[in-house]
Amino acid sequence: MQTRPIRQIICVFVALAGIGLARVPAARAQELGGAGTVQGTVKDLTGAAMPAVTVDLSNAVTGLKRSTTTDAAGRFVFRNLPQNTYHVQVSAQGFSAFGTDVDVRSAIPIEVSVELQLAGTSESVQVVGRAEDLVERDPTAHTDLDQSLINKLPLESSSIGLNQVITMASPGVVADSNGFFHPVGDHAQTQFSIDNQPVTDQQSRIYSNQISPDAVQSMEVISGVAPAEYGDKSSLVVHIVTKSGLDQPKPSGNVSLGYGSFASPTFEANIGVGSHAMGDFLSVSGMTTNRYLDPPEFTALHDHGHNVSFFNRIDAHAGSTATFHLNLQGAQSSFDVPNTFDQNDAGQNQHQKIDTFNIAPGYSQVIGAATLFTANAFVRRDHLTYAPSTDPFADSPASVSQNRKLTNTGVKADLAHAVGGHNVKLGASFNATKLDERFTLGLTDATLNSPCLSADGSPSDNTALTTPSQCSGIVSPNPDFNEALAPFDLSRGGSLFNYAAAKTIKQEAGYIQDDIKAGNANFKVGIRIDHYDGLTTETLVQPRLGASYAVPHAGTVLRGSYGRTLETPYNENLLLSAGFNAGGVFGDGQPPRPGRRNQGEFGVQQAFGRWVVVDLGYFIKHTDNAYDFGVLFDTPIAFPIAWDHSKLDGFTGRINLVEHKGFGAFVVMAHTNAIFSPPGVGGILLESSSGDFRIDHDQKFNSTANFQYAFNKAIGGWAALSWRYDSGLVAGSVGSIGDALALSGDQQAAIGFFCGSAVATRDNPITSCDAGGGATRLKIPAEGTEDDVNNPPRIAPRHLLDIGLGADNLFHSSKAKVRARLSVINIANKEALYNFLSTFSGTHFVTPRSVQFQLGVGF
């Protein structure tokens, strides 16, 4: 009964698809993943087709530029376009230039008819809006990124390149360690849509393997209320269109080798080739380094790792209106888990490996001139293994292992129809995610779960004490003793806890939405139904509403949107976190339920002249069952937690300076409040909380300024500068000087703890401080002022500067082009923390100064 609304939508969808398929095809085949197509015919005054005419397409804000020439029939086509507004310019000797703006808001091909007038007889024709209009009328807040920008950002590594691009170029995204980020106030509620394939599992170095940024043609990063098409994880939606080999009869691509700091060789290669009927694009990359993860020390210890990645996209046109697609991905990463100095001295040797594969076939069919049917299927698997040290007691406070698989299989189908001012789209999806979790744990620290307290009130390290009944004399019972964990205390002769469980999580969804143009107003209305069938069952009807208004002749667009969403539990380690078949050792028998969220976003865009556009927004989210992660000890293994409710709100901003005489720039910024309320459900060994608190992804202000300058066109020279400022995430473990004094010498050194002129070191910790205490890398509240909501401890503010230099045609060749690139990350060698002893992510330092050089050939 709960899935009946979804089945009804599917029935309507199938009926409409059948009606549409009976129509006579009239348009060319469409590309994969919701990307747009602009096509047309160029004719002269007599109606004769004009071959070999140059046609240019561009977007001033994103920097996208394409150029082609008409064929013998006067036809031109631009494929694989992200949804946006573009200016089309047609030029032919002896004829007046023709210019028009086209608004690509769906995957349905847009036909442009061009009739060139003799020179001097007419002016350029403007069909839609003005080319100099920089603002968008979309009610949904988003950021568009083209390969031309992505290619010139100074990135630390291709293995987390996608996440780095998103962090550097999108407002409201807060940087965290290991390529992770917090999207618009949330911990990890991010969905990647790769050529129309939804990927909602976690994407960072410790969870999965991403495709290389080299394979990405464009990205649309939706930070506002997501349209009805998107569900499951929708705080941030990253819609990716990959590169295609279609219409490239001459193979094009590049091959490069690189080397950098921390003994880091790299290899990247891609090639695209194809006719109008069939195309193939291939991307291969790999790297090895002695600083793979962000370590808990500024110095990388036991931190070697490598990754290899393969991506292949195949396109085949069956006739003039049907297209088959296939995306293939295979990747592997294998890396050490970095140590602190103390762990390194103890001989800790933990290792993790992740194998990823993805197979995603797709089919699209243009029906008539205004209807498009698209269907995608996919199977994706991440297999993660985590190995402890050979000697269990080299790992403290516990020896842990993991072997888990996350396999996602599904189908997604859509039908889009454009008529008048309406772009209607309806669709349905089904996916099944099989979770297979194997986990072992054995306590090695005698004080972690000691049954007794010593005379000073600390847990006793006497391994002869195994039950509270033995606590007598100078010791007393420990109120925090967990009897269920006692059999797995290796320090007291226990054995390993062995866990193995499997479960398939199923999800169904149906939606319908309409983008409506009405003069200067745009509306986006939709409704989505999600049915979640996992450890719990939930069905939710979710309205999505948005409106924008372009103030005439002012260069101003006002927008507002509202959405209700179902926030599903994270799949990573969900079973053990919920205590599923755990024999009562972990979990409390209450699996976390999906969250229910009400979200609003309001904003304004303002263009200043033809060169600057400013976008400011305010977001607010109220969620019941708000999700987060909790890490286990010092490992990268994390378990999902659902808090009772949360309130997230803040401001976002983006300022774009359109490229002018080779110089372009943009700045993104945000202020984020993230207040969560207990109790929490899930996690492993979750500490109780008694009141509201600001979670670790709360940050007062962050900004990233990106500057790019193109010089010497003959060699394709360019320079880039990225300046990132973070005011500091919440770091709740050190709320006072007393808390800092209780830290080990290694931990005190990590935060830069001092008392007066005395500075803590690993071998000489500070044990008392009457006055003048503080830390250089942590903001500790003044004595008696710490408050989990109003004045929590935070990571100290930091400024990080990165630069990039490059030449895309070093020897000014018309054939093979030699490319050279230099990147310097953290040029000031700033010693700073991402987080410290965080319950949710641990301790990690930012990357020290890192120099990387690449040399390659483009063809």
Q: What distinguishing features does this structure have?
A:
single chain, 859 residues, mainly beta, 22-stranded antiparallel barrel, five-stranded mixed beta sheet, disordered N terminus
Radius of gyration: 28 Å
Average pLDDT number: 89
β-strand percent reads: over 45%
The SS-based structural class is mainly beta
Q: So what's the overall shape?
A: globular
Number of strands: 46
Distance between the termini: 58 Å
Helix content: under 10%
Number of helices: 7
| Unreliable stretches covering 5 or more consecutive residues | 1-27, 123-132
The protein's oligomeric status is single chain
Sketch the major β-sheet.
Answer: 22 strands, antiparallel, barrel
